[in-house]
């Protein structure tokens, strides 16, 4: 009922948001403030329960629909917008597959992942991070780590500092696992690729057959995932290349993968960093590259000394869009920069390259995987 009501107020809310962007537009305000407000009007961050925009939305909803109870908060409205967008993205993909006469064996599991994400759409980026962390431990020389064994659920690995913030989604996926004949290792990667599809990103081919570890001793020791800051840009660049080359990736693939930071946000309690990279937190678009290329970032020390770390903020914009020192490397290293520019200009190109790189990532260390999609004989 609450959800139906929220959906019924969407048109009103969208009208209000459009109107507030207009009044904040450079046409009617000074250029910098105008841009900032425009960006914020697009923002999909969890708004605080009753921020200024929330009050505006609620006030308008109450005026237009006096007989209806007001929604709990502006974040309910944003959540409903996210749900509507996700439902549309899923329907479009289903129609495409239907046209090809294609069925996916993983469909029942995907439906449960959808239910889990639809309850709180901001979970989608966290599932992508989980897929990365459960695969990105791979070492091509020794053949250890990777997505093959699904070891991230063991406390030894889950409690590592790099994995802070992933416990809740791992526990929730445990419940989904208990309803299906699927390994954890398969589920963690499937949840990531399906979340990307839900956020309107590319379809990432997914194959199954990973075999779970049977004991915690098979977990990988801490220290294989990339660190956000090694002190300065050249050192951080060298570190990123060393980590991703160990997995078997080249420069172009590294840049394609880091574009996943277009979705989600950093939380101080998890990583010591805070804020989203872009205003479209649960949308998979190439805005990360556009921001990196277009805006000037400067060091932001507001969190240092308050349990947080040095990050970058957009110069002249009094907002909390941020970049990690590691993200800034992709802007400043000339070899990485070529691809940042290309992906900023061509989202379809990024989708294609991201899909290939993410499939490769989620198949690191695996053997004998089986196809998920089946085409019905015509
Ligand atoms: C240089 C490499 C990378 C570094 C240093 C890095 C670092 C980080 C950090 C510090 C966070 C914030 C975590 C938190 O506070 O909760 C984060 C979040 C995230 N990372 Fe990365 N990351 C890297 C590469 C990647 C890759 C390759 C992917 C996927 C392909 C990815 C996907 C994500 C996503 C989706 C989030 C948001 C999670 C959420 O909203 O809960 N990252 N990353």
From TrEMBL:
Biological process (GO), any one: cellular response to oxidative stress
Organism this protein belongs to: Hemiselmis andersenii (Cryptophyte alga)
Gene Ontology CC, one term: mitochondrial matrix
Protein name in the entry: Cytochrome c peroxidase, mitochondrial
Catalytic activity: 2 Fe(II)-[cytochrome c] + H2O2 + 2 H(+) = 2 Fe(III)-[cytochrome c] + 2 H2O
InterPro entries listed in its UniProt record: Ccp1-like, Haem_peroxidase, Haem_peroxidase_sf, Peroxidase_I, Peroxidases_AS
UniProt keyword annotations, A-Z: Heme, Iron, Metal-binding, Mitochondrion, Oxidoreductase, Peroxidase, Signal, Transit peptide
Bilayer-spanning residue ranges: none
Top-level division of the source organism's lineage: Eukaryota
GO molecular function: cytochrome-c peroxidase activity; heme binding; metal ion binding
Keyword Amino-acid biosynthesis among record annotations: no
Gene3D superfamilies: 1.10.520.10, Peroxidase, domain 2
EC number, as in UniProt: 1.11.1.5
Enzyme class: oxidoreductase
Family note: Belongs to the peroxidase family.
Subcellular location field: Mitochondrion intermembrane space; Mitochondrion matrix
Signal peptide stretch: 1-19
PANTHER family named in the record: CYTOCHROME C PEROXIDASE, MITOCHONDRIAL, THYLAKOID LUMENAL 29 KDA PROTEIN, CHLOROPLASTIC-RELATED
Major subcellular location class: mitochondrion
Domain Plant heme peroxidase family profile: from-to ranges: 109-378
